[in-house]
Amino acid sequence: MSQPDFYYTIEKKAFAEFKDRGSKFIAYAAPVQTPEEAKVFLAELKKEHPKAVHHCFAYRLGWEGNQFRVSDDGEPSGTAGKPILGQIDSKQLTNVMVVVVRYFGGTLLGVPGLIQAYKSATAMVLQLIPAVQKPIEILYELHFDYTLMNEVMMVVKQTDCTIISQDLQLFCVLQMGIPRARLDEVLYRLQDLHTLEIIPVKGKV
To answer: 23, 68, 82, 204 — which has fewest CB within 10 A?
Structure first.
């Protein structure tokens, strides 16, 4: 199976509200890159909604999508986090978190009702945000003499690479993400620059 060159994500936050028999389900979606960013987003919403009875969530991270987490936050097992994640997955998104804040309306909704409510709130908020296509990038570190700076930067610019970090002195260290679709082309061009060292870095953007 060939590996993809792109993944889909969102670039902005949004929220939507779903009501059922007096209960309010407010879904918040946000782009997140790491579990730490997800924690911060959840903490912000808990602060914003201290009186809500549940703050359920799901997120999926990484272009391979194999890093994910779901939380029912006190709701019956499988009624909140999984339906939220199911909606993220149905849109084939990654690096996305959805938190659904619930205010109890006095009437129990039962397991099917809860699943439907969390699913609906998530579907509503994800409909508000356009999905964006991002190139999958492979990380490399370049070590080179300052005299090669212009040529290196020209390759970076012409092939849509992303500079992640740079330490530019007499001897330069540049960490960059190379779009997978153009990897061979970029490496070929960089290898043409003598005295430049190219080191693959574990991990992908």
So the answer is: 204
What is the distance between the terminal CA atoms of the chain, rounded to a whole angstrom? 20
In angstroms, rounded to a whole number, what is the distance separating the alpha carbons of residues 108 and 134?
Answer: 42
Q: Each residue of 9-62: pLDDT tens digit?
A: 999 999 999 999 999 999 999 999 999 999 999 999 999 999 999 999 999 999
Cβ atoms of residues 72 and 30 within 8 Å: no
**CATH superfamily, domain at 6-133:** Impact, N-terminal domain (3.30.230.30)
What is the amino acid identity at position 59?
Y
The 10 Å Cβ neighbour count of residue 17 is 13
What values do phi and psi take at 23, rounded to 5? -80, 140
Task: Return the structure tokens found at 198.
Answer: 């190219």
Give the residue carrying structure tokens 């209960």: 23
pLDDT at 1 over 70: no
Give 136-204's CATH code, choosing from 3.20.20.140, 1.20.120.80, 3.30.70.260, 3.40.30.10. Answer: 3.30.70.260
The residue ranges of every structural domain in the chain are 6-133, 136-204
Residue 97, sorted as left (phi over 0), alpha (psi -120 to 50) or beta, turns out to be: beta
Identify whether the C-beta of residue 25 lies closer than 8 Å to the C-beta of residue 17.
yes
Find residue 24's DSSP bridge partners.
19, 103
Average pLDDT, the chain: 94
